[in-house]
Amino acid sequence: MSKKLAVIAVCLLAGATPAFAQNATCNEPVAPAMVDGATVAQPQLVAAIAQVKDFIAKSDIYQSCIAEDLEAKKKAATAASTPFDNQLQQVALAKVAANQAAKDKTAKDINTQIAAFKAKAAK
Fold this sequence. Notes:
Layout: H1 2-25, H2 42-79, H3 86-122
C-alpha cells in the first residue's frame, strides 16, 4: 500500500514540476524611471521612450507566461484527477491586472512627458 502511495506522490510531483518550474520563468518587469519632459534633453527622452517600449514588450511576455503557467496547472490538476484550486486563477488574474495597470500608467506617463518636452521645445 505504501509503495502505491509513494508512486502516486512521485507522479503528482513530476506532473506538477513543469508548472512550478514555469513559475520561476515568469519574471515581472520593472517599470522604468520616468523623465521630466520639461527639463530632459532629447537623447534622454529618446532613451526613456525605448525603455518604456521595452517594458511594455516584456510585460506582454510576462502576462503570456502567467497565462501559460495557469493552463499548465489546470492540465496538471486534470491529469492528476485532482480539483483545480481556483485561488491560483485569482492570483494569476491579479498579477496580470497589476502588470496591465503598470503598463497603462507607464504609457500615459511617457506620453505626458513627450507633450511637456514638445511644449518646452516650441517656446
